[in-house]
Amino acid sequence: YTPTTLRPGRHRLKVRVDDTPLSPSVDEIEVTVEGATKGFGAVPEGMTVVASQDFESIPEGMCEELPEGWYFTCGYGEAETRSRPAGSAEVCLTGGSRAMHLNWPGTGPRMKLHLGTQRPLQAGAVEFDFMVPTVRRQVLAGVAEGSELNLALYLVDAGKKMTYNNGKNSHQQFSPNLPAQPGEWRHVRWEWGHAGQQRIYVDDMETPCADEKGVRRKLAKGADSVLFFFFENQPAELYIDNVRILAPAQDNKAQGGHAKQ
User: Fold this and answer.
1) Which of 37, 167, 201, 233 would give a disulfide with 189, using CB separation of 3.0 to 4.6 Å?
2) Is the peptide bond before 176 cis (omega within 30 degrees of 0)?
3) Separation of alpha carbons 141 and 155, rounded Å
4) Which of 137, 134, 133, 115 is nearest to 124 (CA)?
5) CA distances from 167 to 59, 142, 158, 163, 195 (A)
6) What is the pLDDT along the chain (261 residues), one digit of tens a residue?
7) Residue 224 and residue 98 in contact, taking contact as beta carbons nearer than 8 Å
8) Using CA atoms, how far apart are residues 174 and 208, in angstroms rounded to an integer?
9) What residues does 7 pair with on adjacent strands?
């Protein structure tokens, strides 16, 4: 590793020390890479925060209980339950800060990790950082209403690309094409609006990669969670960080809500 391959922030690394050719030892060190650390940016104008998680206040280790606002589901559609899946969630130091590591063995019904929106959102946005160690299996992000997957964004699809569902094509390619990059942290802002409008930004928050009308299925009352989705028989890993759900400020005022940061 060099400072150019690690994000700014704290990192815990295993270092092999060759005491002798026959008895090498491994030590663990913590290093800090200088620079602007990743985190929540300014709240976009006209929006307010309804849920957020950067995992910094969560102790490192396996999550026997998920942080407040998060929950697992298994299965899909009418078969979906809130049972604990075969996979695991762990908070660990990676990418310069604490993040959530999801590990899915591929056994049993589909695994989904949700963050609730607190109330139905006909319009809103979700922001998150993610990293996939490998791109051999599909990993999906979604916006859901109940057990319905309404908006779908493949972080890794079967063609090792990022794609999305535009209502006509379940694997619509971005223009230019966005290959899935193993080991590389990426930042997403995904906006949805009334009548099936969606806008997707990846890394560049000034220029959308997609801006069109058309989603997998239109929302009825509104989205009640954003989720990260793993398919049966497809073992995969995913790291997520700096997850934030936003709502139009006017909608929040009408609901009598307040921002949670």
Assistant:
1) 201
2) yes
3) 7
4) 115
5) 40, 14, 19, 12, 12
6) 555 556 777 777 777 766 666 656 777 777 777 766 677 888 989 999 999 999 999 999 999 999 999 999 999 888 899 989 999 999 998 878 899 999 999 999 999 999 999 999 999 999 999 999 999 999 999 999 999 999 999 999 999 999 999 999 999 999 999 999 999 999 999 999 988 999 999 999 999 999 999 999 999 999 999 999 999 999 999 999 999 999 999 765 555 544 333
7) no
8) 10
9) none
Beta-strand relationship, 111-121 and 124-131: unpaired
Q: Residues 139, 132: contact at Cβ < 8 Å?
A: yes
Coil, strand, or helix at residue 249?
A: helix
Q: DSSP secondary-structure letter at 250?
A: H
DSSP per position, 81-129: B----SSEEEEEEETBEEEEEEEE-S-SSPEEEEEEEEEEESSEEEEEE
What does pTM read for this prediction? Answer: 0.86
Please give the Cα distance from 29 to 102 (Å, whole number).
Answer: 24
Tokens of residue 111, six digits? 């695994």
Any residues with CB less than 8 A from the CB of 92 and at least 6 apart, and which?
A: 60, 98, 99, 101
Closest to 117 (Cα-Cα) out of 76, 89, 151: 151
